[in-house]
Design brief:
The protein is an alpha+beta fold. It has helices at 2-14, 19-23, 32-38, 44-55, 87-107, 147-154, 169-181, 194-206, 208-218, 224-233, 239-242, 261-268, 376-386, 422-440, 444-451, 467-478, 498-501, and strands at residues 69-72, 82-85, 115-118, 128-129, 135-136, 186-190, 248-251, 272-275, 286-287, 296-297, 303-308, 314-316, 325-331, 339-340, 343-351, 354-362, 366-367, 374-375, 394-403, 409-417, 459-462. A hairpin with a 2-residue loop joins strand 15 and strand 16.
Length: 503
């Protein structure tokens, strides 16, 4: 892993005389062992005071290199973080994205025969800057490409990137679909969350008549594409029917996102779904390189360490064991040193010295009413198994902790059936409930809580049609999370959805 050692040496030597480097005695660091001794593992609260200095216009804080912008995280909570971006950090991310695109072209050449749609979301807030004039926010996915690739990509975008200037989401998506529908050569789609794709599809289904009417007013009645659309859209169809050259859609496929992949596949038709790698606002960890294999660690991008979930031991990439769970710890040229990402990954192979792994959830998303310690990845595994045969027939499923007026505590499984499948879902509820309860009981802490009557057994509630859409709007409008970045959790915290659930 010489590339990793060179990365580490470069970070230390370049930033030796920054305020962070002086405090942590970078001048004493000679190897990985001394790097680990001098710098403790950091979380965002450790880095926040340094970022505040950068926000206020100070230089030479975390990096000698100037911060060119801040990217604002958008998770499923109201707490957001500002991540400093240098030109070198953008380049490091591009060094991961580049091999992904090269491998995609090698493995799925048909994805490149036509135009592409890259996830763009309408702005939810005014453009912002810090008090010292540093911009806040990356505009769209194409920012992750180098300038030449970005320019070339702009020539084949199925919908122009300047649509993001639309201030209202409905007009934004309406105009987006006007472009997409009239493009008969769409071959590749890249979005982040599968739930975002499902929302896009729902918009198309709901507004198809208005879209056709609008297109008729702009194009000749003899336009062959318009004639084709009008014929297809009023019959049962997939996206592959609308865009015959569509070959690949890229989206999250792991952790909670895996619950929606069967539904995406049913809508998209005979199109390959490629899972994205692990790319966060703070940096890039993995990209899909191998056909039908898990994404590969981006050894050329940052310096990586991995903390074992169960005993906290920190290992390097070549020391990881198959089938074990780790939390990636990254050091980047953006000034994050030994930053604990909070992501959990499971190693399932190697590509040379670089591990391949699946994202299985977030470390700190859990629920603990009486000591049962339910984690996101356990709940996700449970729901996926229990709902495996029903996944294309449901819009939404999640588990929610409840404390009743009698002070009884338990978990509720909420399921929103897809339209026309309500009866099947009701008929399956008994088996689903039994399967979920059985799998949760494999958690010894949960089992003890049940056995001691500290927790009551789970309940299942069926949600009315449209709940998922209201939940989507709750996150995007109330919490300011961009549509394309939204991950709907499978495990919610206590008291987080009471107004929506009517509890």
């Amino acid at each position: 892993m010489r590339k990793q050692q060179r990365k580490l040496d470069n970070y230390v030597s370049k930033n030796k005389y920054t305020q962070f480097g002086i405090l942590h005695k970078f001048h004493e660091i000679q190897d990985y062992d001394s790097f680990r001794e001098n710098i403790p593992i950091q979380d965002y609260s450790d880095i926040a005071p340094w970022i505040e200095k950068i926000k206020n216009g100070e230089n030479n804080i975390l990096t000698r290199e100037k911060v060119v912008l801040f990217e604002e995280t958008s998770g499923t909570s109201s707490f957001s973080k500002l991540i400093p971006y240098t030109k070198s950090l953008k380049k490091e991310i591009q060094q991961g994205v580049g091999p992904w695109m090269k491998a995609l072209h090698t493995n799925y050449k048909s994805a490149f025969i036509g135009s592409s749609y890259w996830s763009i979301s309408p702005p939810l807030k005014e453009k912002k800057m810090t008090s010292s004039g540093i911009p806040i926010g990356i505009q769209d996915d194409t920012e992750y490409f180098n300038p030449i690739t970005k320019y070339l990509l702009s020539k084949i975008l199925a919908a122009p990137a300047d649509l993001r200037q639309e201030s209202h989401s409905e007009s934004f998506y309406f105009k987006t679909f006007e472009y997409l529908l009239m493009n008969d050569n769409l071959s590749f789609i890249s979005v982040w969350s599968p739930t975002f794709f499902l929302e896009l599809n729902q918009f198309l289904v709901t507004h198809k008549e208005e879209l056709i009417t609008s297109l008729k007013s702009k194009y000749s009645s003899e336009n062959s594409r318009l004639i084709y659309l009008e014929k297809i859209m009023y019959t049962k169809h997939s996206w592959k029917d609308l865009w015959p050259n569509l070959a690949v859609i890229s989206c999250w496929c792991d952790a909670q996102s895996s619950l929606w992949i069967a539904q995406v596949q049913a809508i998209i038709g005979n199109v390959y779904i490629q899972g994205k790698g692990l790319l966060s606002t703070e940096g890039i960890c993995s990209v899909p390189i191998l056909k039908d294999k898990s994404p590969v660690l981006c050894v050329q991008s940052h310096f990586y360490e991995f903390r074992t979930l169960y005993n906290g031991k920190v290992l390097l990439a070549h020391e990881l064991n198959l089938n074990e769970i780790y939390e990636p710890i990254i050091t980047t040229s953006g000034g994050f040193y030994r930053y604990a990402t909070g992501d959990l990954i499971e190693v399932d192979g190697y590509y040379g010295d670089a591990p391949t792994f699946k994202f299985i959830g977030r470390k700190h998303i859990s629920s603990d009413l009486v000591g049962e310690k339910l984690s996101e990845f356990q709940v996700n595994k449970t729901l996926n198994s229990a709902l495996k045969d029903l996944s294309v027939k449901i819009e939404l499923a999640f588990i929610y902790p409840v404390i009743k007026h009698s002070n009884q505590r338990n978990y509720r499984v909420y399921i929103e059936p897809a339209i026309t499948f309500e009866n099947e879902i009701y008929q399956a509820l008994g088996d689903v409930k039994e399967n979920i309860q059985s799998m949760l009981m494999s958690n010894p802490h949960y089992k003890t809580a049940i056995d001691l009557n500290q927790l009551m057994p789970i309940e299942i509630h069926v949600l009315g049609s449209g709940f998922k859409h209201r939940l989507f709007n709750f996150y995007t409008s109330r919490l300011g999370i961009k549509d394309g970045d939204l991950k709907i959790p499978v495990l919610f915290k206590l008291n987080s959805l009471e107004p929506l659930l009517g509890i």
